[in-house]
Design goal:
There is one protein chain. Strands 1-2 form a two-stranded parallel sheet. The protein is 44% helix and 10% strand. The protein is elongated and about 50 Å long. It contains two helices and two strands; from the N terminus they run H-E-H-E.
């Protein structure tokens, strides 16, 4: 979905794009040794980064990306 959205925005507005916030909010469970197993979040972010790469390869002028803004 992200790659298609980037392509649509680039085609429609013909402007450089910057993703100012992207992330996955979830309720984390603290495990042993005070760790959080968040493979789901890693996979989510990996998929979005790969989608941005494909969009750039397809000509989208994506010049910036931030995971989270200060909230």
């Amino acid at each position: 979905g992200l790659m298609l959205a980037l392509q649509e925005l680039a085609d429609r507005y013909e402007k450089p794009l910057f993703i100012s916030e992207n992330g996955l909010g979830a309720i984390d469970t603290v495990g042993e040794n005070h760790t959080i197993n968040d493979i789901y979040r890693i996979q989510y972010m990996k998929g979005h980064i790969e989608a941005m790469k494909r969009a750039i390869e397809n000509g989208v002028n994506l010049f910036g990306y931030t995971m989270w803004g200060p909230i």
